[in-house]
Design a protein that fits this description.
Blueprint: H1 6-21, H2 25-54, H3 58-79, E1 87-90, E2 104-110, E3 114-117, H4 131-139, E4 143-146, H5 152-168, E5 176-179, H6 182-190, E6 196-200, H7 203-215, E7 222-225, E8 232-234, H8 236-241, H9 245-254, E9 266-270, H10 277-283, E10 288-289, H11 293-307, E11 313-316, E12 319-322, E13 328-331, E14 333-338, H12 339-345, H13 347-350, E15 357-363, H14 369-376, E16 380-386, H15 392-405, E17 406-411, E18 449-455, E19 476-479
Parallel strand pairs: 1-19, 3-4, 3-6, 4-5, 6-7, 8-9, 8-16, 9-15, 14-15, 16-17
Antiparallel strand pairs: 1-2, 2-18, 10-13, 11-14, 12-13
Length: about 500
């Protein structure tokens, strides 16, 4: 499957770009629903393959298929009426206060073929038919998915389902394709037909690909999710008011063997907090296979580095077992350290530990946390705060720091389990992502759209959303002549 003609794949996507962009939103929405239905129908066989290739549990994978298919349906709902196109029409106005205004019409149009690098840890929701693919297809962009080497058989089977569903729904040939192999992925990223790319994975690989995208003769947007340590903070009031706080934390760290981009890598607690629940909670977690030998080996090395760092005290040592297939099976490792020791350790503790490992940090003063957070955690997908209502004024500076450095700020609960909603933000400042956009929720569509304005264009040459006849029936925001003379009145607000 790695022996493919990159130029031929890219050219198929390029040929499909204009016909696919010209599909009415309701027709494209119907195609997304068809793909969702087909995935649900194929779920039993796909889940069986995924269990074998990834080691993830049937229940987890069943929920992930449901999330993936319903994500496609959500995107269909988001685009069906065409409001996402943000069609704006300014009628000619010779009396326009800034000077005579021509006929100007603006709409969001698909950027063109998109390359999606699939992730390993979500073999459905962030892989072949996952969020990046759904967003690009919803926008009207042909998609080329670079399959992840951790689940190749599943990738091929999923792609076959999607290709068949889109074809039956009348979408153009080349609207969706799959490639495999690291060299092919890099070559496709450099191909002039590709107009944007998305990636979920390690910081090292993501940064390398981002640099390639930026160094092209024609640079392209690269939306890379590179990793996150997702710090969580608990006040003295929260520790007292939430008796299951530490057990909830351990459960979040251990879920899916800690192989989630939103796993809380750090929990800050008051210096005198009782951490006695941690060893008991961790001891009840059964061992879980890591995704593949490469990830297992990396976790093993990272765990050893953390355990060997000065100032670290083990709360739950956990273990790593190697089976006959060179797969690693792990149980949670939880350690504690003082805030000063964490600061002194630097990257030895601050780097992401991808797997079931987390660090509890004891702090002396709540008021010192905002500055510490901003220095140690400049960019994350999430940050979490556990505090009582009575502590609102005391934690406000910390909330400000969390909102400036995180894509999502949680009040209570834990960041694992990202809800797919229209308001969700799954992104964050660098180094969490290369571009601070979202890869979850309907706002993700906008990454693959660009604004185009048409000035004094004849009706016959305007795209459908901007025509006065409005054949797609999309919402059009119109500015009629004569309105500019009333600027500043704000409808009587003054």
């Amino acid at each position: 499957m790695t022996d493919i003609d990159i130029d031929a794949v890219a050219e198929r996507a390029e040929r499909a770009a204009r016909p696919f962009a010209a599909t009415a939103p309701r027709h494209r929405a119907a195609a997304l629903v068809a793909a969702a239905d087909a995935l649900d129908a194929a779920a039993p066989s796909l889940i069986a393959i995924a269990m074998r290739e990834t080691g993830l549990a049937e229940g987890r994978l069943t929920g992930e298929v449901r999330r993936t298919s319903n994500q496609l349906r959500l995107f269909a709902e988001a685009i069906v009426d065409g409001a996402y196109l943000d069609a704006r029409i300014d009628a000619p106005d010779p009396e326009y206060v800034i000077g005579p205004r021509p006929d100007v019409r603006r709409v969001l149009e698909p950027v063109g073929p998109v390359l999606n690098f699939a992730a390993s840890n979500f073999p459905f929701a962030f892989s072949v038919a996952g969020g990046d693919t759904a967003a690009a297809l919803a926008a009207g962009c042909p998609v080329i998915v670079k399959a992840h080497s951790g689940h190749p058989e599943l990738s091929r089977a999923t792609a076959e389902v999607v290709v068949g569903a889109l074809a039956e729904a009348g979408m153009p040939d080349g609207a969706f394709q799959l490639i495999e192999g690291q060299a092919n992925g890099t070559a496709m990223l450099e191909h002039p037909a590709i107009r944007a790319a998305a990636f979920t994975g390690s910081g090292r690989v993501g940064r390398m690909l981002a640099d390639i995208a930026a160094a092209r003769p024609r640079p392209i947007p690269f939306f890379g999710e590179l990793g996150s340590v997702n710090p969580a903070y608990a006040t003295a009031g929260a520790v007292e008011a939430e008796p299951d706080l530490l057990r909830g934390f351990v459960a979040s760290v251990a879920g899916s063997a800690g192989q989630l981009c939103t796993k809380p890598g750090f929990l800050f607690v008051p210096a005198d907090a009782d951490l006695g629940d941690v060893p008991d909670a961790a001891s009840g977690v059964p061992e879980h296979r890591l995704l593949n030998p490469g990830i297992g080996t990396s976790f093993e090395a990272r765990r050893a580095e953390v355990l060997g760092t000065d100032g670290v005290r083990v709360l739950a040592e956990g273990a790593v077992r190697v089976d006959g297939d060179d797969q690693r099976w792990a149980t949670p490792t939880i350690v504690e350290v003082s805030a000063d020791a964490l600061d002194a350790a630097g990257d030895a503790l601050l780097e992401e530990s991808f797997g079931p490992l987390s660090v509890i940090v004891r702090y002396d003063a709540l008021e010192a946390l905002p500055a510490l957070h901003e220095r140690l955690f400049p960019g994350n997908l999430t940050s979490t705060l556990h505090a009582t209502d009575a502590e609102a004024d005391a934690v406000r500076p910390l909330v400000d720091a969390l909102s400036e450095t995180s894509g999502r700020v949680l009040f209570g609960g834990w960041p694992t389990g990202v809800s797919v909603t229209s308001a969700m933000q799954h992104g964050g400042p660098y180094p969490a992502t290369t571009t601070d956009a979202t890869s979850v929720g309907t706002a993700a569509i906008t990454r693959f759209l660009r604004g185009v304005a048409y000035q004094d264009a004849p009706e016959s040459l305007l795209p459908a959303p901007l025509q006065d006849a409005n054949p797609w029936g999309v919402p059009q925001r119109r500015s009629e002549p004569g309105l500019s003379s009333g600027w500043g009145g704000l409808s009587g607000a003054f």
